[in-house]
Every structure is written in structure tokens, then in C-alpha cells.
């Protein structure tokens, strides 16, 4: 049957049904015990209007529910004690878009968490890592130095061989590397017979299971001569995988044949070893713990800009967290000291942003800290002004700020945390329990931000659909 004939038959059927709807008795036709009815044109139109009305009412109810949820999370994001101070309301939107897409794209997005001794042992960072990897994918402990300087509860690390430690902070300041420190603000200089790094996952039940699984390993280095490296998985079926590094700042990458809980890396030649990243299979988020004991946060500009930029470019960095200020508190005497320090921090933020322009930056200020004044434990007098000044510095430099001081309760909250076993008797450092709680509060701040981002995006999509429906004449 040709198309013209099909259209003719279709038109005849439509006309017949239309005529039947106009002439068919409203009470129907009785045939025996049956009563045949045919819907009228009026009822068809009315049902269509009712259906659209119900659909619109459901959309309106959904919109009202969304509006209530958005208002709730706005209150948390805008005014809670764990909120982020943001330079603009949409500052983190691009970050959330990137991490949401990481798993499907097979992309490992890094969050690099720099800090002073408050984050040693993977404190705080481990809880943020658990949240990110559970919600956005990824596994493994993240970035670590070639040789451990401070213990890390998330991975067991051992290194053999002769290595010279070069750092922009700590006890090795007398051993300079002319700014060649790399993304961990320190490096290990290799020369001679070589060195071997072995990393095994933690056996502690305190460590999140995702951090114990890894597959992809990457060595970040500055090859000054003839760097080569051999990788092997402690449980893998593959033999050693040998790679030779190109000159300059470079990366060597390997993948185990399956998920493993232990790897070995042997290097030889002449090079500065910046870092080793140990991540899971597929895409997701890697969260790196980079403690810098005794550091004031003013060491970033000691790293050569060209080298730091090159190192960052080899890593897919979505966010850089800078957590500093506590080590300087005892030395501040007045507002001028605070102002000078904050000006320096502003320069550090600008420098890091210049070296890694695609990454969002979050600066985290110090916690409450107690000192005895006239025999009573009280907050260091300079802390409230320092917190305000650091928040203003972050905003002025276009980055986010988070306040541990406010999150733990503000003025004179440290003695209460100590009584609860959340902080040590020095009234400065958190205990393991306290660090976990603070890490969870930081993760909660990220959760609230992401929920608001998700809800507002959903609301915008709903509004666009309703606009398109109205434009199409469906009211």
C-alpha cells in the first residue's frame, strides 16, 4: 500500500471516530446485559487538561520540595560553623563538575592537602579521602615521598638505599636544592647504586578499605642524568616492568595486572625524586596527605616556579588545600605581626595559583589553642583576629577559606575538646579521635556544598523544562 493510500485510510478513521464521539448517546447503547459507551470529545479534552494539570501540580510540588531543600542547604553553606567562606557563590561549581565526571571518564583527580603537624599520620586527610572516594570513586592512599619522614597510618612504607633529603622546611634547611623541591616541598636526591621503595596497605581497621586497594603507580621526578626504574606488584603475576625516564621533570607510570595491596619500586641513576602516587584502578578522586612539620605555610615560594609548575602539570590537580597558621600563633604579639603574616600567606596563595591555575584552592586556618593567662587556660588572644585576617586574605586572593576554630566551637573550645579526649594535654594538637572528628566535619562541609550544587542544578533543569513546556503551548 502506497503512502497516499495509507494517509487516506488514516484520515477516514479519524473522521469516523470524531463523528462517533459527537453522535454516540451519552448514556450508551444497551446490548443485552452490556452497556457500550464511547468517550465524548468534551471528556477527551477535559481528561487531557486534567492530566496536564496533575502533571503541572506534581512539578509544582517537586519544585516546592526542591526550594525547601535548597533553602535548608543554603543556611548550612552560608551560616553554619563548618561553612566555607567563598570568594563567590559558584566558586566550587567547576570542581564538583570535574569530580562528578572523573569516574566515568577514567580520570584521577587529585586533592592535595598540605598542612603542618596537625595533619601528620594522615590525620584529617584520611576522613576527607574516605568521603571523596566513597562518593566519587577512586582508591589508594595517594601521594607520598620516596622515603617516609613521618609515620602514615594509611600505608606501610619502607625504603632502602642512599638518598639525600632536601626540603623547604624542617631540619634539613641547611641542605638546599636551589628550589628543586617538587610538589611535596621536599625531594630525595638519588645518585649511585640506587634505592628501593616498598609500600604495603595498612592492616589497621581504622583505615578505610578503599585506601588499601591500589593498582596505578606513578613516579614524579627530575631526571638529572640517567634515571630508570623497575616496578613490580608484590602479588602480581607480571614480572618487573622497566622504564627509562626522559630528561627534566617527568613521570614514569605503571599499572599492576590486578588490584594489589603491595608494590615495589627500584630506581637507579641520577635524579631528584619528588613523589610517588599510589592510586586505584579506573577514575575517581585521589586525596594526598602532605604534612610539613613546623611549617608556617610560607615555604611554597621557596620552590622554583618553573619546576613546581612542571610538576603540577604532570598531575591532574582539582584542588589544593593549604592548612597553616597554628605554628605562628605563639609568636604574634600584635596586629602588625598578624598583618605581615597574612600578607606573606597571600603571596603563597598567589604563587600556588600561578603554578597550578586550574586547581581550586582552599585555605584552612588554625584551631583554637590554649595558653595560661593568670592561671587560667584561655584562647591565645591573637587567634580571633588572625582567623578574620586569614579569611579576608583568602577572599582577597579569590580562594576559599575554612575555619577549624569555628568548627570546633570558637573561643575557649580547646579545653572542652581536651576533656573529651579529642585533643592532647598540650591544648594544641588533636588526638586521633579528635582528628577524625575534625576530618569528618571538613568532609561534611564538602557534602553540604555538593548537595547545594546538586539541588540548584536540578532546580535549574526543572525550571528549564517548565519553560520549554510553556513555550510549546502546554499549560
Descriptive report:
- The chain has 475 residues and is an alpha+beta fold.
- Helix content is 38%, strand content 27%.
- It contains 10 helices and 19 strands.
- Strands 5, 6, 7, 8, 9, 10, 11, 12 and 13 form a 9-stranded antiparallel beta sheet that branches.
- A hairpin with a 2-residue loop joins strand 17 and strand 18.
- The chain is globular.
- The two termini are 39 Å apart.
- Residues 52-57 have low confidence and may be disordered.
The largest β sheet comes out as: 9 strands, antiparallel
Q: Into which percent range does the helicity of residues fall?
A: 25-40%
Bin the strand percentage. Answer: 25-35%
What is the end-to-end distance?
39 Å
Topology, number of strands: 19
Query: What structural class is derived from the secondary structure elements?
Result: alpha+beta
- Identify the quaternary structure here: single chain
Mean pLDDT: 88
Amino acid at each position: 500500500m502506497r503512502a497516499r493510500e495509507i494517509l487516506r485510510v488514516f484520515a477516514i478513521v479519524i473522521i469516523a471516530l470524531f463523528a462517533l464521539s459527537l453522535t454516540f448517546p451519552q448514556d450508551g447503547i444497551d446490548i443485552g446485559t452490556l452497556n457500550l459507551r464511547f468517550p465524548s470529545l468534551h471528556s477527551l479534552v477535559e481528561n487531557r487538561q486534567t492530566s496536564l494539570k496533575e502533571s503541572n501540580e506534581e512539578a509544582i510540588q517537586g519544585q516546592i520540595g526542591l526550594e525547601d531543600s535548597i533553602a535548608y542547604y543554603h543556611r548550612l553553606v552560608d551560616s553554619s560553623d563548618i561553612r566555607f567562606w567563598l570568594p563567590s557563590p559558584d566558586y566550587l561549581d567547576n570542581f564538583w563538575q570535574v569530580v562528578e565526571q572523573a569516574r566515568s571518564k577514567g580520570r584521577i583527580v587529585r586533592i592535595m592537602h598540605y598542612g603542618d603537624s596537625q595533619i601528620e599520620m594522615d590525620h584529617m586527610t584520611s576522613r576527607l579521602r574516605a568521603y571523596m572516594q566513597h562518593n566519587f570513586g577512586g582508591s589508594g592512599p595517594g601521594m607520598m615521598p620516596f622515603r617516609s619522614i613521618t609515620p602514615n597510618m594509611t600505608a606501610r612504607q619502607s625504603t632502602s638505599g642512599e638518598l639525600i633529603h632536601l626540603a623547604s622546611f624542617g631540619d634539613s634547611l641547611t641542605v638546599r636544592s636551589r628550589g628543586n623541591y617538587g610538589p611535596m616541598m621536599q625531594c630525595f636526591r638519588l645518585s649511585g647504586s640506587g634505592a628501593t621503595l616498598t609500600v604495603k596497605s595498612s592492616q589497621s581497621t581504622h583505615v578505610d578499605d578503599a585506601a588499601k586497594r591500589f593498582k596505578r603507580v606513578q613516579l614524579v621526578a627530575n631526571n638529572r642524568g640517567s634515571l630508570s626504574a623497575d616496578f613490580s606488584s608484590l602479588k602480581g603475576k607480571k614480572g618487573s616492568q622497566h622504564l627509562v625516564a626522559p630528561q627534566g621533570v617527568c613521570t614514569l607510570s605503571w599499572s599492576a595486572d590486578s588490584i594489589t595491596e603491595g608494590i615495589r619500586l627500584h630506581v637507579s641513576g641520577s635524579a631528584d625524586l619528588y613523589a610517588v602516587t599510589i592510586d586505584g584502578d579506573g577514575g575517581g578522586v585521589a586525596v594526598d596527605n602532605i604534612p610539613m612539620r613546623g611549617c608556617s605555610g610560607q615555604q611554597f615560594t621557596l620552590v622554583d616556579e618553573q619546576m613546581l609548575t612542571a610538576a603540577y602539570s604532570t598531575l591532574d590537580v582539582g584542588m589544593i588545600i593549604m592548612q597553616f597558621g597554628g605554628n605562628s600563633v605563639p609568636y604574634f604579639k600584635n596586629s602588625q605581626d598578624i598583618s605581615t603574616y597574612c600578607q606573606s600567606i597571600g603571596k603563597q596563595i598567589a604563587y600556588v595559583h600561578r603554578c597550578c591555575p586550574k586547581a581550586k584552592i582552599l585555605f584552612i586556618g588554625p584551631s583554637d589553642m590554649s595558653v595560661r593567662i593568670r592561671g587560667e587556660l584561655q584562647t591565645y588572644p591573637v587567634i580571633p583576629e588572625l582567623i578574620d585576617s586569614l579569611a579576608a586574605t583568602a577572599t582577597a586572593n579569590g580562594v576559599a577559606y575554612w575555619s577549624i576554630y569555628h568548627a570546633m566551637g570558637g573561643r575557649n573550645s580547646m579545653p572542652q575538646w581536651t576533656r573529651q579526649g579529642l585533643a592532647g594535654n598540650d591544648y594544641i594538637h588533636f588526638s586521633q579521635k579528635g582528628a577524625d572528628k575534625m576530618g569528618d566535619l571538613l568532609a561534611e562541609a564538602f557534602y553540604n556544598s555538593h548537595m547545594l550544587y546538586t539541588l540548584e542544578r536540578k532546580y535549574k533543569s526543572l525550571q528549564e523544562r517548565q519553560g520549554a513546556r510553556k513555550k510549546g503551548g502546554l499549560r
